[in-house]
Amino acid sequence: MHRFHDGALLTAVELPSGAGRRSHFLKYTMRNVWDFALASIAVSWQPCSRTSGWRVVLGGVAATPWRLPHVEQMLEGSALDDASIKAAAVRAADGAKPLSHNSYKVPLVTKLVEQALREARA
Amino acid sequence: MPPGEWHAYGRTGHGQRYVPLDQITPDNVSLDAVAQAIGRERWQPPAAKSGRLRCGIVLRYSQEHSGRADSDGTVWFDREGRVHVPTGIGNTGSGPQTGIGIIVAVVLGLPMDRVVVTWADTADVAWDFATDASRSTHCNAKAFYTAALDLARQLKDVAAACFGIADDSLEQRDGMVAGGGRSVDSRELLGELSSRPARSNFKPFYDPALAEAAMRVATPQIRNAGTIGGNLLQDGRCPYYRGPWHCYRAGGIVCDAHHGINAEHAIFGGDRCYIVSPADLATALTALDATIVD
Q1: What pLDDT digit, counting tens, does each position of B147-158 carry?
Q2: Which of residues 50-89 of A touch B (CB under 8 A)?
Q3: pLDDT by residue (tens digit) across B93-129?
């Protein structure tokens, strides 16, 4: 995470050239426009016979974008078959501490991880 | 529109007449055909007309100068098989973005939904002679046409090598390059195309996750006025923090959301505060390993 000093201006966002890299994003909202994510997910990976360099990041579930390092590790070298997608998805909400009204986000992020990976494979 | 079909009762909404496209050929395009299309036989001299209202039949034919200077055009192909047309031309009422998009789609034999026209910063796109008005289509479209022809030729060249046939026997339609009884989706040719020597210094960056995240931000009006920095720097989203409460994040000692309404709040990393970041782009950019420069 980037930390701004007082009075700093964000002047640019730098991206790695990303040659050959694939990615996918999903946003779950109550309405299709003009709404904030109840949860969102961005994944990126390097495709090959075996996938590598995984990043699995959730939005709308923490004060910052929330990476799932354990899920990334499970996907490393995976063939993205049904079994590995399912196995990664069920671990998506590991460590979640829902409050009184937001426990729906636990199955939601599980579902988003699964859907993102299935669509990513297509 | 299928041939022979009418837009509306009486042929078109305004009662115009037209010749179905499949009946217009190089052989029959003549003044006679035009005269027929516009109903010239109903013409009457002005003196024969009476009444307050006069209906006439008009064919507007005009020449628009295509600029006093050259324009450059860029089209490029992403790995999802979409063709991008970045331009400094705004979509004025006469629809130059639509027009240029259609030209590129036709040249490349692509469905329109695979052509993305972006109103881009004039500092970053190919040189446009005019970006200001209806004439921008006439001034710049030829450059995009030529660029699209060049891309089409490169795609055919790659496909011809794959199929082992001459590239002039190939044609492009519905997003496919076809010929000699074979066809290939043009997006499948990208890998081979990108392994060839670069033809320009233009290095587009396109990422599907970032594009989708940007497309899902707020509304079109907000997206058109908003910036990436603005999206990233949005303050956290919590009604107690943004409201008049003196919560932990606002300098107090308790999190009001913890025992209050917290349906939209954090499930990860919360402790003294359960706020969530509303920045969709931050999620995508984190997945892309982006860094912030300040």
Answers
A1: 999 999 999 999
A2: 55-67
A3: 888 898 999 999 999 999 888 898 888 888 888 888 8
Classify domain A22-121 at the CATH superfamily level: CO dehydrogenase flavoprotein, C-terminal domain (3.30.390.50)
Of B61, B227, B24, B113, give the one whose Cα is nearest residue A11.
B227
> Is the whole model's pTM more than 0.90, yes or no?
no
Contact status of A120 with chain B (Cβ, < 8 Å):
no
Alpha-carbon dihedral angle through residues B252, A93, A55, A117, given to the nearest 10 degrees: -140
Euclidean distance between CA atoms B150 and B108, whole angstroms: 10
Q: Tell me whether residues A44 and B294 touch, CB distance under 8 A.
A: no
The pLDDT tens digits of the residues spanning B218-235 come to: 998 898 889 999 999 999
Report domain extents, chain B. 1-61, 76-194, 208-287
Q: How far apart are CA B263 and CA A99, in angstroms?
A: 8
CA angle B211, B231, A9 (to 5 degrees): 120
Categorize the per-residue pLDDT at A26 as very low, low, confident or very high, splitting at 50, 70 and 90: very high
CA distance B99 to B137: 7
Distances (CA, A) of B90 to B66, B123, B225: 17, 14, 14
Q: Is A41 exposed, middle or buried (0-12, 13-18, 19+ CB in 10 A)?
A: buried
Closest CB to A23 among B236, B263, B288: B288
> Which residues 6+ apart lie within 8 Å of B188 measured at CB?
none
CATH of domain B76-194: 3.30.365.10
What average pLDDT does the segment B51-70 reach?
60
